[in-house]
């Protein structure tokens, strides 16, 4: 019996040692994610971290007890990061039971996307195999939608898949227009403009804003009280007032962005981010003055107004960059869950509008990590950070050349199989 136990322990020790053997990537082109490119790079991965990275001649290691992987002339990238998404919260739009991205009511500050995250969604593997390993899973609906969390696109359950829980609270700022469907033009007709300026619409907006101020005021007073009746919705705002928990305010119009920023200043919110910001290019000085980062809405979209340039959405990133505003890209909108695999190609589009490839890469790696509060762990290929990276034989920002061959998350080699590949192989045989 004792011999069996010893044998079992030795086997477990052997498996553990195998799984924790340092990995060395040799000869690749490392795109660090901060503008730097390392040719003929060597990267050592140990205990889920990047232990060393640099040009081959500067990184010494003992080949004994190491797994050596030759990635000569292939491209090494940090994991792409997808902010502001409902990925994992809904599966089939036509099936109500599979949709869990929103709750009823205006004030859902107690809602936490983390616990609704579905790790068995078949969409995750498809998105993952385009280099996106982390996502800010965000609830929708109401004036206060709830709290987002940074989730891994892998894991057996939501606890295991959590990378950073409850990273921030999301507010949908009341605005005087909204487009609900892809068939709606983003240009207003004269009739739409008249409606937008109507007293009824203005009153509705003011009423909603007043409700937000009242809710925050009540929450602030609640959290100052020592003796009180427990209120989960107000409890959820405690960290917004007292710590660096981020307040994400979704706003797109000039007035909406300004009002949202002044709202956060009124309550002395330490960290605030604008989500959407489609008209942010009009008020860059104001945004820069208040040092507000932006999660910029999908740039593959039409402009808001009929007198805007048709490609204004494509021009906006360059304007924000020149203004010195920290921003990243998201994929919110129509078909956002299944289409989010195309996030790197949005970044690639900015190259035609004034960015170089490494600057474009920052929009979905280091900038995203900074805004989401995880830059100390990921977003760049640097020693001490989590080994979240992938190897592609081509340019990962190009649709035609991106071809991921290896995928690592916290040092673990992740399978490249996905639902689309399974279907391809299934019907190829026929």
Question: What labels would you give this structure?
Answer:
430 residues, alpha/beta, Urease, subunit C, domain 1, TIM Barrel, 2 domains, eight-stranded mixed sheet, 16 strands, globular
What does the model show?
The chain has 430 residues and is of the alpha/beta class. The chain folds into two domains: 95 residues, Urease, subunit C, domain 1 (Roll); 298 residues, TIM Barrel (Alpha-Beta Barrel). It is built from 15 helices and 16 strands. The strands form two sheets. Strands 1, 2, 3, 4, 5, 14, 15 and 16 form an eight-stranded mixed beta sheet that branches. It starts with a helix and ends with a helix.
Put the structure in a nutshell:
With 430 residues, the protein is of the alpha/beta class. It is 31% helix and 22% strand.
The CATH topology of the largest domain is TIM Barrel
Unreliable stretches (pLDDT < 50, length at least 5) are 8-18, 178-186
Question: Could you say how many structural domains there are in total?
Answer: 2
- Look at the structure and name the CATH superfamily of the largest domain: Metal-dependent hydrolases
Whole-angstrom Rg: 23 Å
Q: How far is it from the N-terminal to the C-terminal residue, by CA?
A: 52 Å
Question: What share of the residues lie within helices?
Answer: 25-40%
Overall average residue pLDDT: 88
Number of helices: 15
User: Briefly, what CATH class of the largest domain?
Assistant: Alpha Beta
Indicate the structural class. alpha/beta
Instruction: Please give the CATH architecture of the largest domain.
Output: Alpha-Beta Barrel
What is the approximate shape? globular
Largest sheet: 8 strands, mixed
β-strand percent reads 15-25%
Give the strand tally. 16
């Amino acid at each position: 019996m004792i011999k069996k136990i010893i044998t079992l322990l030795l086997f477990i020790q052997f498996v553990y040692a195998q799984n924790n053997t340092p990995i060395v990537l040799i000869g690749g082109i490392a795109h660090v994610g901060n503008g730097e490119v390392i040719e003929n790079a060597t990267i050592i991965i140990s205990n889920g971290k990047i232990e060393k990275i640099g040009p081959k001649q500067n990184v010494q290691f003992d080949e004994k007890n190491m797994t050596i992987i030759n990635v000569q002339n292939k491209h090494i990238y940090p994991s792409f990061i997808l902010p502001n998404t409902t990925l994992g919260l809904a599966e089939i739009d036509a099936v109500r039971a599979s949709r869990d991205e929103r709750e009823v009511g205006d004030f859902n500050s107690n809602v936490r996307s983390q616990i609704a995250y579905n790790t068995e969604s078949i969409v995750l593997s498809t998105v993952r195999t385009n280099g996106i390993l982390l996502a800010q899973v965000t609830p929708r609906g109401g004036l206060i939608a709830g709290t987002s969390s940074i989730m891994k696109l892998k894991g057996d359950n939501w606890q295991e898949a959590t990378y950073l829980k409850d990273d921030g609270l999301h507010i949908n700022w009341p605005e005087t227009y909204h487009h609900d469907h892809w068939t709606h033009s983003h240009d207003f007709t004269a009739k739409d403009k008249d409606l937008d300026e109507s007293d009824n619409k203005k009153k509705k907006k003011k009423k909603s804003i007043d409700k937000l101020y009242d809710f925050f005021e009540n929450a602030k007073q609640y959290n100052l009280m020592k003796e009180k009746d427990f209120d989960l919705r107000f409890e959820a705002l405690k960290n917004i007032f007292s710590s660096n928990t981020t307040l994400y305010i979704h706003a797109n119009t000039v007035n909406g962005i300004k009002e949202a920023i002044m709202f956060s200043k009124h309550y002395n919110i330490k960290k605030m981010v604008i989500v959407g910001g489609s008209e942010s290019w009009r008020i860059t000085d104001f945004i820069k003055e208040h040092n507000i980062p932006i999660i910029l809405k999908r740039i593959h979209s039409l402009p808001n107004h009929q007198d805007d340039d048709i490609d204004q959405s494509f021009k906006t990133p360059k304007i924000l960059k020149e203004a010195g505003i920290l921003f990243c890209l998201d994929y919110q909108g129509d078909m956002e869950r299944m289409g989010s695999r195309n996030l790197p190609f949005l970044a690639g589009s900015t190259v035609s509008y004034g960015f170089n490839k490494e600057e474009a890469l920052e929009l979905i790696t280091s900038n995203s990590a900074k805004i989401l509060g995880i830059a100390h762990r990921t977003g760049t290929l640097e020693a001490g950070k989590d080994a979240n990276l992938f190897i592609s034989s081509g340019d990962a920002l190009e649709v035609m050349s991106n071809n991921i061959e290896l995928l690592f998350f916290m040092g673990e080699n992740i399978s490249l199989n996905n639902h689309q590949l399974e279907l391809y192989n299934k019907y190829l045989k026929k």
